[in-house]
Amino acid sequence: MEVYLDNNATTMVDPKVFEEMKPFFIEKYGNPNSLHRFGAGTHPKMLEALNYLYEGINAADEDDIVITANATESINSVIKGIWVDKILNGDKKHIITSEVEHPAVTAACKFLESQGVAVTYLPVNEQGVLEASAVKEYIKEDTALVSIMWANNETGKIFPIKEIGQICKAAGVPFHTDATQAIGKVKVDVQDTNVDYLTFSAHKFHGPKGVGGTYIRKGYTLTPLLHGGEQMGGLRAGTVDVASMVGMGLAMKLATSPIALAHEEGHIKRLRDKLENAILEIPETIVIGGKENRTPNTTLISIRGVEGESMLWDLNQNGVGASTGSACASEDLEANPVMNAFGSDSELAHTGVRLSLSRFNTEEQIDYAINVIKNAVERLRGLSSSYAYAPESHKSAL
């Protein structure tokens, strides 16, 4: 049996989405910016897709949603756009983010630091969540942007976006949230949360790879990251990938419907908890960050005495796909930065295994995965020359 439990890295394209995309490869292939019927023939479905995106995050008609290649491009567009608009061409010189952001946010902020921008990286608490009060404490008169993720890609922990949005609004500071790991798992509402910029990627909610979006609240602007033609109202140059845009729109509609979100909070959460609780029956295993305030599909578990990379090899040999954390950093064998941010010891920092489910996982698959994981732990601990089960010596692992 094959069981895919790495849905925070990417998801299977929903078959309904794939069928919606197919005509735009061969039948309706015109450039949407062309004036002839071949180009114009793409417009109805593009408009429909855009409407689905607006509805999915509750954007207002006056707001902008820009189609991009992925969340990484969207994130860079926001952070570097703010850099140009408010730092290079203004009097701001400070950005606030967290220590556990996706590498796209962290790397963009590191680049700005190399250009003389001051960046504050706020730590998370013992539960792996950034406290809104910390944002308020560090906002200064020269703060140009606050960028805090909606949900963490490794732990699934949900951050207090509404409270942070209120703080930023009161201080007159633009607020960006990376909602890549939240859409399709929890309700995302830009109006309710005072979010000014929001970024996402279709392949995280059963859409195609290679397409994402940037939400921009009315009254806010960004210098484009890509210059060229007048596509997307001049906010993002380049011919739009119509098939991917159409697919992302339908994927958004399917993932954010009340029925879909209830399924996540009910059935998917139940399967995640079943998997997690079975693993926690193994001595010296813990859930990183605890069980509260998470997306319904995600768990990051530390198994003392078992290297994360070794565990993944065993799981892969038995048809189970999982991750040690962010897929965007999967080739980096350094200690997991999220584990480090939690203050874990040097041994535990290498033991995290992330399991992330989707609506396409079944009860039978979870039962199989539980058996595989338990067998792998027994085998790998048996091979270890340093591991010995001694509960008294590891009471305060985290």
Automatic annotation (TrEMBL):
Name of the top EC class for this enzyme: transferase
Swiss-Prot/TrEMBL catalytic activity: (sulfur carrier)-H + L-cysteine = (sulfur carrier)-SH + L-alanine
Protein's UniProt keywords contain Cell inner membrane: no
This protein's UniProt keywords: Iron, Iron-sulfur, Metal-binding, Pyridoxal phosphate, Transferase
EC numbers, comma separated: 2.8.1.7
One annotated GO molecular function: cysteine desulfurase activity
Domain spans labelled Aminotransferase class V: 3-368
Cofactor: pyridoxal 5'-phosphate
Signal peptide (UniProt feature, chain positions): none
InterPro entries: Aminotrans_V_dom, Cys_deSase_NifS_proteobacteria, Cysteine_dSase, PyrdxlP-dep_Trfase, PyrdxlP-dep_Trfase_major, PyrdxlP-dep_Trfase_small
Keyword Iron-sulfur assigned: yes
Top-level lineage group: Bacteria
Family of this protein: Belongs to the class-V pyridoxal-phosphate-dependent aminotransferase family. NifS/IscS subfamily.
NCBIfam families given in the database record: nifS_epsilon
Protein name: NifS family cysteine desulfurase
